[in-house]
Amino acid sequence: MTITTRLAVRSDVSSIARWNVAMAWETEHKALDPAVLERGVTAVFDEPRRGFYLMAERAGEPVGCLLVTYEWSDWRAGDFWWIQSVYVVESARREGVFRRLYEAVQQRAKEAGAVGIRLYVETENERAQRTYAGLGMERCHYFMYETEFAR
């Protein structure tokens, strides 16, 4: 069955938020607050400088999504596009949904003059790592560190 991609629209917010809850639980056993997620997803539509979501559809039904955000690289004088919040519904996995989303991001990034695409993946999510490597992405030599602030 054909997988198509499109820019997400505001009416997709609840699906995107619901899928983020599922993704966080599946990959990290982390319970996210649905209300906070709904605000977070909506904020992307409110401020396009934050990024955009792409949706994948099979037979007109949404089956996956991802978020693209931007990181300025002074070393390269251009933006890296970060792929985040990837989710594919269970019934559509292993059908090329992420591949189609990734190809759409790659095309848009090249057309926009981005210098590259990056993503991060949970260290134990070997299936996702194989998928990304199969698309020609390479593991970087950086570790990621963070500090979270209480809200």
Automatic annotation (TrEMBL):
Keyword Signal belongs to the record: no
GO molecular function, one term: acyltransferase activity, transferring groups other than amino-acyl groups
Parts forming coiled coils: none
N-acetyltransferase domain location: 11-151
Keywords (A to Z) from UniProt: Acyltransferase, Transferase
Gene3D superfamilies: 3.40.630.30
SUPFAM superfamilies found in the cross-reference section: Acyl-CoA N-acyltransferases (Nat)
Domain of life according to the entry: Bacteria
UniProt-listed InterPro entries: Acyl_CoA_acyltransferase, Bact_Acetyltransf, GNAT_dom
Claim: Lipid biosynthesis is one of the keywords in the record: no
Name of protein: GNAT family N-acetyltransferase
The organism of origin for this protein: Dyella jiangningensis
